[in-house]
Amino acid sequence: MSIFLPELKYGLDKLEPFLSQRALDFHYGKHFVNYINAANALIKDTEFDNMSLRAIVKNSDGALFNNAAQVLNHEIFFNSMAPQETAMPESVRDLVLGSFNSAEELKEQIFKSATAHFGSGWTWLVYDAATGKLEIRNTGNAANPITEGLVVLLGLDLWEHSYYLDYQNRRADYVKGFLEHIDWSYAERHYVRALTR
After folding, report:
1. SS3 per residue for the chain
2. What is the value of pTM for the model shown?
3. What residue ranges define each of the domains in the chain, with the CATH number in brackets?
4. Could you report the per-residue pLDDT of 162-178, keeping only the tens digit for each?
5. What pLDDT is attached to residue 135?
């Protein structure tokens, strides 16, 4: 089973001025595609060939893990965004209020975590089924919290290639822009799926 490039749910120009069409074309059309091509080459004629992407991430290591995880990470990242921030569904709002004092505090904590992260990596909003709470996690390089049994609701790419064309070294401005373009309906789908497992 091959890993395919998922279609964006918005046009490459629809996140402007937060992310330019040029930056998205470079990120989605080149970086993302390179990870997909590398992962497909690595799984060919192996036991991973018939696994889902998430299963590959949970069961691989080395170069295969790095490339497959980056495919999954980017899929989550691009789906975490919308041309305009969507309304927060009631189920997600209840979860946010049960884990943080407000949606504003949640965003403040995401901002602090993402801007404090050193080097390449990711900031994640995750659901821990064991506690019933939301958490903010940072990971380095290609790491994804699903390997720890957590449910990823949103993901923010902190690799420089995700923002450097538009923001250079101004990561804080990029993170602020992301927080204004969250697709909360995407987060809800993963939360609901976790509850029905």
Report:
1. CCCCCCCCCCCCCCCCCCCCHHHHHHHHHHHHHHHHHHHHHHHCCCCCCCCCHHHHHHHCCHHHHHHHHHHHHHHHHHHCECCCCCCCCHHHHHHHHHHCCCHHHHHHHHHHHHHHCCCCEEEEEEEECCCCEEEEEEEECCCCHHHHCCEEEEEEECCHHHCHHHHCCCHHHHHHHHHCCECHHHHHHHHHHHHCC
2. 0.97
3. 21-79 (1.10.287.990), 90-195 (3.55.40.20)
4. 999 999 999 999 999 99
5. 97
